[in-house]
Each structure stands twice: as C-alpha cells, then as structure tokens.
Design a protein that fits this description.
The complex is a heterotrimer. By secondary structure, chain B is mainly alpha-helical. Chain B has helices at residues 10-29, 42-69, 77-94, 98-117, 126-145, 147-150, 177-201, 204-214, 216-221, 226-251, 262-275, 283-299, 322-338, 342-354, 364-367, 375-382; strands at 3-6, 156-157, 254-255, 355-358. In chain B, helix 2 crosses helix 11 (262-275). The longest helix of chain B is centred in the first third of the chain and has 28 residues, at 42-69. Chain C is an all-alpha fold. In chain C, 72% of the residues lie in helices and 2% in strands. In chain C, strands 1-2 form a two-stranded antiparallel sheet. Classes of the chains: A alpha/beta, B mainly alpha, C mainly alpha. Chains in contact: A-B, A-C, B-C.
Chain lengths: 277, 396, 352
C-alpha cells in the first residue's frame, strides 16, 4: 500500500526529466479526511489534477464523491489533509472566494435562481468580475457600462451553448437538460481555471449525455480549462477523462487512465454490488 | 387588443414616459384634491397623505430586507423610532434644522442596523427573527428609561416646523400652504429613496441580494459574500426606516414610546405584504392601504370628521380600537392566500393582459441585434412575475 | 402506518431528559459546561456576598417561578418550531385569548376554575388544529416567509378580537391555587414561597412530564418525533405528516393556554389583552437560548431566563428594573453569537 501511495503522490508533481517538465498539477489533494459525527465520509484521499486534464471521479453511491467536491469548493471543512490549488492553500479560502481563485462548480441538484432570468443567473456567475457595490449601484456610478459588460459576456456564453434565445426568460419552468446547461454557463462565466462538474449527465437522455461529453471536451479546449468530473455515466467518463480516480467507502481504490480502470479488478468488484452502468 | 412593446424602441419609451408622467401628475395633484368621504377635514387629509409617504419609505426599507434579502424582521419599528427621535431631539434641544437631521438619522440608523445585523454573521434564519423581535420590544423601554432625553411616555415634540421659504409664494400662516410645502419636500425625499432602492435592486448588488436569498450556498460559491451582504442590507433597510421616522416627524413633530412599538413593525409588514413582497413600487399601495384604513377606523365613530362612512353602531363599544387589528389581520390572511404577490403582482398580471414588454437591453444591439424570441416566450416573460410568498423554488 | 413506523423507530432517539442532557452536554463540550456553571457559581457567590444568603435564596425561588412560566411558553414555541419550522408569533395571543375563555367560563358561567382551564385548553387545541389545517398546511414548510406572515396575521386578528370583545381594562382571574390572605405561603429555608408559586412549579413540572410521556410513549408522539427529525423520510414510511403536525399545534396551544392561566395565578397580574406580551418575549428568549429545536433546551432556557430576570433586576442596580428586558436580551444575543443554535439546539450541516 505504502509504495503504491508514494507513486500516486509523485505522479502529479512537477516531474522534470532532462529539463523538460512533463506535467504541472493544478490541484493537489493530499490525505483529505472528512468525518460527520462518527461517520467517515472520506479517509486519506489524495490525488492530483494536471493542468488541462479531465479527471473523472467515480465510485458507487455514497462513496464520497460529492463530499470531496464540497471540500474543494469549501462548503465542508475536512478533518485533516491539504488541498493546494495553483500554488495556494485552498483550505484557507472562504467559499465566496473560490471563484476569485479560479474554481467554479455546478451542483448535483440544480442550484439556479428560479426567480431570476436565465441571463441574470449567468451574470451572477460573473459576480466577481464586477465591482459595483451598494453605493455605486445606488448612485448608478458605472452601473450601465458594467451591466453591459457582464450582460454581453453572459450572452456570449449562453450563445456558445446554444441558449441565447432563452436569455431573457425566467429560469423557472425550463427543461432539466437546459437548466443543466445554464448551470454550466454560470460556472463558465467566472472564467475558471478549474471547472468542477457534479453529475452533469444525471437525468439526461442517452443522446444528451453524448452531446454533453463532447461539449465538456470542447469547452476544455476552448476555455483552457481543467475539469474535475463526478459522474455515474461510465460511458461518458470513459470517453472523455484523461485520468480516473475511483472511490469506494471514502477511500481511493484505483487511479489510472480509462483503459487501466476498466480492467482493474478492485473497480469491477466495487461496482458489482451496485451494477456497473 | 394587445400592445406588444420591445424594450428600447420608441414606442416603449413613449409608454414609459406616459406612465411616469401619469404617476407624477397624480402625486402632484394629491394635495389639491379633496376626498371628503374618507378624510373629514382637508388638513387631516393632507397630513395623512404625507404620513403615507413616510410609511411608503419605511415599507420600502423593510422590503429590501424581507422581500429582497429574505431576512425577516419584526423590529424595524425601533429604527423608525430612532430616526424620529434623532429628528425631534436634534431640532428641539440642539436647534438643528430638520434638513441637517436627515443625514444623521439615516447614517445613525444604518450604523445601528449594521450592528444589530451583525449577529447575522453567525445566527441563521429564525434565530435572527427573535433578535429583531427583541430589538422591537426593547426600544420603547429604552425610551422610557432615558426619559430626560426622549421625554419618555409623555412624548417629545417640537414647536418649529419646516416652513415654506418665500420663493415658493406659499403663505406660512395659511392653514394649508405649509402642509402642502411639507408634502412636496417629503415627496422629493421619498422619490430619492425609491430611486436609490430601485437602482440597488437593478444592479449587481441587487442580483447578489436575490441570489443569496434564494440559495445562499450557490451564491457563496459564485463569489458573493453572504454574511457581509446580509449585514449591509440590514443596515440599509434600517437607514431607510430611519429616514421614514424623520419624515414622520417633519409631518407631525411628536414622538412617544407607544408610537414605535412592535405594533408599528406589524403594521409595516402588513403594508409590505399588501403592496407586494419583493417589489419596489408595492410600498406605495401598501402604505396607502395601511394609512387610510388606520385613519378610517380611528375616526369611524366620529360623525363630524367622517361623512357617509361613519359607523355609529360602534360608537358605544369600548373595545372598538380592536377593529383596526382585526381588519389588518383579516386582510393579511386574505392576501397571503388570494393575492400572495400583493397589489403590484395583481397589477402586473392585469397589465400583462394588455401590454407585453420584451426585454432587450441596449447592449444587446452591439452583439446580436437580431436576437429573436420565440413568439410563445414573449408572453411568458411578461407574466413571469413570481411572488416570493408563492413557492416555485422547489423545481430548481 | 404502525409497521412502517416501528421500522424507523430505531433511529429516532427517545426524548428522555436525562439521556438527552447527557448527550447534549457531551456535544457542548466540557468547556461550555464549565463556563456556564462557573459563571453561575461566581455570580451567585457575588450576589450572596452583596446582600446575604437569605435574600439570594428568596430571589432564586422567585426567579424559579417566573422561569417555570417562561419554560412552559417556550415549550409551546419549540413544539410549533419543531412541527412547522417557524416561530409562532401568535403563540402569546392564542394563550391570551383562551385564558379569556377560561375567565369567561369560570367567572361568568361560574364553572370550577380547573374545569374552566381544562376546557379552555381543549378549545384552544381544537382551534389550533383547525387553524393549522386551514391556514398553515397549504404552504410548503420549507418556505418560512408566508407561514410567518400567517402567524402575524393571526396575532393581529386575535389581539383585535380580544380588545373588541373584552376591552382593554384589567380583570381579576380566579386563582386555581389556594390563596387565602396571609396564609397563602410556605416557608422554605427562610424564604417565602406563595402557594400560587408552588402551584406554578408543580403544574409546569407535571406538564413537562406529561409532554415527555406523550412524546415518548404514544404512537402520535413517536410520529411527531419522526416528523420533526426528518419530514420527508417520515412521509415516505407512511406517517400522516399533516395530522402529526396538527397534533403539534394542538399540543402547543394547550400548553400555551395553561401557561396563560398560570401567569395570572400570581395575584399581581391582571387579565387584559396584552398580559402575555412580557412572558412571550422572555419565552422567546428562553427558547432561543435553549435552542429552538430542543424541548429540553426550552425548559432549561426558561429557568435560566427566569434567573437572569430576577438577578439582574435585584442585584445589578445601575441597570435597574426598566432595563431588565434589554439586558436579558443582550445576554441572549451574546449567547447566540457564541453558540448560534442555542445551548441545546442541533447544529445543522449544510447540504448541497
């Protein structure tokens, strides 16, 4: 176990061979443990995501995927461990500052604002790029230009996801798949370096899942993103991930590229009980 | 017959100008039109309209908090009272002008509001309601305790009032003219407060408010500092209520402990719900209803002051003072069930039957002038006013 | 309903005061207990040193009487908070109204006092169940604003009706406890305790035991604990959620009415439409300090607030009796800042 772990740890570090650095870790998760009362949700989880990678985080229900997500996005405080993002210690960052550090996420159960219009939802995603507080807003100092700037940006993102025609209608009442895309648009509006997607394909049709997979890859290339993907749809994870981390009962049981993972006996075992998709 | 307007077009601008001109005309004519069947005497009528302005500002401030940021307070009577006492004390004891007291009332209430709102940094949800309730209950006891400054239960008044300057050609000794002048002064103050509130709502700060109200976690993840936002909004709404208190004193310069009890907070909440939760303009109909109904039932047994609406059968009842509360309670229940969005939501639904306005901000022209909205959706936009009281957040 | 309930009951902790206190004490941590107990002891010693043991003892017992009443009203508030997730601002008004009913029955219809009180309690339960069914149940329990507004409407409606029917002048309420002049007290270690006070203690203690038994030993009590701990799961296993919450309202109304009558058994308080206001505020404080979702917290909070009230009023002279309310509330805000969910309240983990 121990040499294995050392190998895992070294994988994502700046490994420089003959003066050429092969990979740069954007996010380093080290020995993260989370306990709720007596329940251990995560224990000693470590993995790295390299710049530009799509990392799939998979595992049976209750394996701790969403908990990991919430730790990185600072909703939960881990019992111990370290998270380094782009050189800075994430565990000292407040949740409302993670976008400023370049981390954006979507939610498993949609977290959009039904009473705001679609474009306003996306504009909230770009909140950190505005600077009008209460005083400037009240006196309308620079409000018009800023609203135009944020509005144009949000509209552009919606347009690129094929949602521009919905921009000015309320988010309430739109189909599920569309709402998922709006969440994606909101996450993109903050110009993230790391995009974290929590089960983006849940509830989508087969065709939509395939489209979404292509979209995520495309967005990664276009916006120069690094992606952390939590997903149940194995086909999508296998198709787009560069690297996969498998969790079971809060522990990492395997890590590797899709081909390695699909052959790994521990993964197959973990999934047998719940039935692999 | 339906009018379809696109934001930013000439027709839309004409529609807006027309609507605003009509509103301005009504507000300007108010002091000159007599409504003898509601208000007995003309001075009483005008003072009640001026009072309505103050209530509107207070309800607006409370709506910033309750409607737009989702924090419930039943202690804002304390801030109205604080603003009122600032006005009365500075003018009566320190011979300030009323206008000097106005910014002091706002700033002091803002600061005190922020301090009171500070527990919001740690205390969540209904625990904070209890804190606000405490503030509302404690304020009158403080007034009694510091009797030397506040006048205690006997109240404190000011003899000087805002008198019309000579350039207005209003006669300061006339029965109506000074009242008219004060109405217009307070009208300007109220309009400024409404514009400020509207500007905040329709901007980045306003979006942040609504975002943290409906989903604090998602708001935080998107970079909104929820606690700081809440504290500032608490302070801001307190500031608005402070200005309202100042306005009440300009209208009728007399303050006592009972005028700022929790009952006032409840009255404000009633006006807020009747007008429309999370609307800016709802404060106006809300204030009108609250002021007119209180007036009607205070006067309703007085045959001299009230014409055909008087109810002499009530005159002999010693408990007739309870009628106002009963009517308010019943109205509140009816509104929560029948028209949870209040008057304004009702008006918007009515308007949507005749006018549809398609959102088309000016900046859109530079990137996609041909932005097309499917015909079906135009109507959705116009009727999408979603009152906060009716729950539609579960789908998202 | 029954079989499904039995299956879930394993995970629902019984409302046993001893066990619960022990567990909560563990959660608060030894530091919190030490600080609270330390502050209490130090203050008590200071007070004893100031005016002697006898006066302190008298004040302690006086505070206990107030405390029991606050505990009762706080219990009612917490029941509704657990049932509906809101604070019932009309709690005091409902209690006031049905105390008037008890007064009407006993004074105007010459019923025996206890029968009148019990009937009023029953009527208040019927009223509260009806109100819950018609005005509270249509709303989504997760949406606090409309429900809070409905309770404010109820407050306004009841207060107005009471003023209209019974006017504002104070009325004497027949005491349910023996109250012969000059023979109406017992001596407990040199302190004078009125029968009425003693009656309040006993009644509230009996009531608390009754509520505990009701919640622990009956099917509906089990359902109530299930619903207040997890509404959705309870619904899934077949608990009739609406009926259960209605039970919570009915129980709270009955407790409130009893508390109202107890407030008046002190001969210095008269019946008038605003007589519950002060008790209600202190009960709010008690419920908050104990933790809004903890029944034990309500009782402990009530007793603490009762002590705070008499001790601050009695010993801290520069504050004086006018500001007792303000000071008590300030202390509560400080407690909340340190422990945002009160002393015994559940700390909730955010779910995303």
């Amino acid at each position: 176990m121990s040499p294995q772990r050392n190998a895992d740890r070294n994988r994502g570090r700046r490994v420089c061979n003959q003066g050429e650095c092969s990979s740069v870790s954007l996010l380093e998760v080290e020995d993260i443990s989370v306990r709720f009362g007596g329940i251990v949700a995560l224990s000693d989880l470590s993995f790295n995501i390299e710049q530009g990678q799509i990392l799939g985080l998979i595992g049976p229900n209750g394996a701790g995927k969403t908990t990991m997500f919430n730790v990185i996005s600072r909703v939960y405080q881990p019992t111990h461990g370290r998270i380094t993002f782009d050189g800075s210690d994430m565990l000292h960052v407040r949740p409302d500052n993670i976008t400023r550090h370049g981390v954006a996420r979507t939610f498993q159960n949609l977290a959009l604002w039904s009473r705001l219009s679609v474009i306003e939802n996306v504009m909230v995603g770009a909140h950190t790029q505005g600077r009008n507080g209460f005083v400037r807003s009240a006196l309308r100092i620079g409000v018009k230009s800023e609203e135009a700037r944020l509005g144009r940006k949000a509209y552009g993102i919606l347009d690129s996801l094929g949602l521009a025609h919905l921009a000015f209608r309320p988010a309430a009442g739109l189909p599920y798949g569309t709402l998922k895309r709006i969440e994606l648009a909101r996450a993109l509006a903050s110009d993230p370096k790391l995009l974290m997607l929590d089960e983006p394909a849940a509830g989508l049709t087969h065709q939509e899942v395939d489209e979404l997979g292509n979209l995520v890859k495309e967005l990664r290339d276009r916006h120069n993103l690094t992606v952390l993907l939590v997903e149940h749809h194995m086909s999508m994870v296998m198709a787009i991930s560069d690297n996969i981390v498998v969790l079971d009962f809060g522990r990492k049981i395997a890590e590797g590229n899709p081909a390695e993972i699909s052959r790994d006996p521990r993964v197959i075992e973990a999934y047998l009980g719940v039935g692999a998709e | 017959m339906r009018l379809s307007l696109i934001q930013g077009t000439k027709q839309h601008r004409a529609y807006l100008v027309g609507a605003w001109a009509f509103a301005a005309l009504v507000l300007i004519l108010v002091p000159f039109v007599r409504l003898p069947w509601i208000f007995g005497n003309p001075t009483g009528q005008l003072q009640n309209w001026t009072r309505t302005l103050a209530f509107a500002v207070a309800i607006l401030g409370l709506n910033l908090l309750i409607g737009f940021s989702g924090q419930i307070s039943i202690g804002h009577s304390a801030f109205v009272g604080l603003g009122a006492y600032v006005a009365v004390i500075t003018v009566a004891d320190h011979h300030w002008s009323y206008f000097a007291a106005l910014p002091v009332a706002f700033v002091l209430c803002f600061v005190v509001g922020c301090v009171v709102g500070l527990p919001a940094l740690r205390i969540k949800g209904l625990y904070l309601v209890v804190v606000t309730f405490a503030i509302g209950i404690v304020f009158p006891t403080l007034v009694i305790r510091y009797e030397t400054i506040t006048g205690g239960a006997n109240g404190k008044g000011v003899t000087s009032t805002i008198a019309p300057p000579t350039w207005t050609s209003l006669d300061p000794r006339d029965r109506m003219d000074p009242l008219r002048y004060r109405y217009f002064v307070l009208l300007i103050v109220a309009v400024v407060m409404f514009v400020l509130a509207r500007n905040i709502i329709k901007s980045r700060a306003g979006r942040a408010m609504v975002a943290q109200r409906d989903n604090p976690t998602a708001a935080a993840i998107n970079g909104i500092s929820v606690p700081i936002n809440k504290v500032i909004i608490f302070g801001l709404s307190a500031g608005f209520c402070g200005v309202a208190g100042w306005m009440l004193m300009v209208n009728q310069p007399f303050a006592s402990d009972i005028s700022f009890s929790v009952q006032l907070s409840i009255t404000l909440i009633i006006g807020l719900v009747l007008g429309g939760v999370a609307t800016v303009s709802g404060a106006i109909p809300g204030a009108i209803v609250v002021v007119v109904i209180s007036h009607l039932f205070e006067q309703l047994t007085d045959a001299k002051k009230l014409g055909p609406l008087r109810m002499t059968w009530l005159a002999s009842r010693p408990g007739r003072g309870g009628i106002v509360s009963m009517v308010f309670g019943a109205l509140l229940l009816i509104f929560v069930f029948v028209l949870p969005g209040g008057f304004i939501d009702g008006l918007r639904k009515l308007r949507a039957k005749f006018v549809t306005i398609t959102t088309r901000p000016a900046w859109l022209a530079s990137i996609n002038p041909s932005h097309s909205v499917p015909a079906l959706e135009a109507s959705v936009v116009a009727t999408a006013a979603s009152p906060v009281l009716a729950d539609n957040s579960t789908i998202l | 309903m029954t079989t499904a309930l039995d299956a879930t009951s394993v995970s629902i902790e019984p409302f046993g005061i001893g066990r619960k206190i022990r567990r909560r004490l563990e959660e608060i941590g030894i530091r919190g207990v030490a600080v609270t107990a330390g502050v209490f002891v130090v203050l008590s010693l200071t007070f004893v040193a100031m005016d002697g043991l006898k006066l302190y003892w008298q004040r302690f017992l006086d505070g206990l009487a107030n405390g029991f009443i606050y505990a009762a009203v706080a219990l009612a508030l917490v029941l509704i908070y657990k049932a509906t997730g809101i604070i019932n601002f009309a709690q005091g008004s409902m209690a006031m109204f049905f105390t008037f009913i008890a007064w009407v029955l006993s004074r105007q219809q010459s019923w025996p006092v206890w029968l009148a009180i019990l009937t009023a309690m029953l009527l208040s339960s019927v009223f509260a169940s009806g109100f819950e069914r018609v005005f509270i149940r249509p709303f989504d329990p997760a949406n606090h604003l409309p429900i809070t507004i409905v309770t404010i409407a109820l407050l306004s409606l009841i207060d107005g009706t009471a003023i209209y029917v019974w006017f504002a002048d104070p009325k004497a309420f027949p005491s349910p406890f023996p109250s012969k002049p000059r023979q109406d007290y017992v001596d407990i270690f040199g302190a004078r305790v009125f029968y009425a006070t003693l009656g309040i203690w006993i009644t509230v203690i009996l009531m608390t035991i009754g509520v505990t038994l009701l919640l622990n030993r009956t099917k509906i009590g089990l359902a109530f604990r299930a619903v207040s701990s997890n509404l959705e799961s309870s619904r899934l296993v077949g608990v009739n959620v609406g009926r259960t919450l209605q039970f919570g309202w009915a129980l709270a109304a009955a407790i409130g009415t009893l508390a109202g009558c107890l407030v008046l058994s002190d001969s210095r308080t008269y019946l008038e439409p605003s007589f519950m206001a002060k008790s209600l505020v202190f009960a709010f404080a008690a419920a908050t300090i104990g933790g809004l979702d903890s029944l034990v917290g309500a009782v402990v909070g009530g007793l603490l607030v009762g002590q705070m009230q008499t001790m601050i009023g009695g010993y801290v002279h520069f504050i004086g009796s006018d500001l007792v309310l303000a000071t008590t509330l300030a202390i509560i805000i400080i407690v909340l800042l340190v422990r945002p969910s009160g002393l015994f309240g559940k700390v909730r983990v955010e779910r995303v």
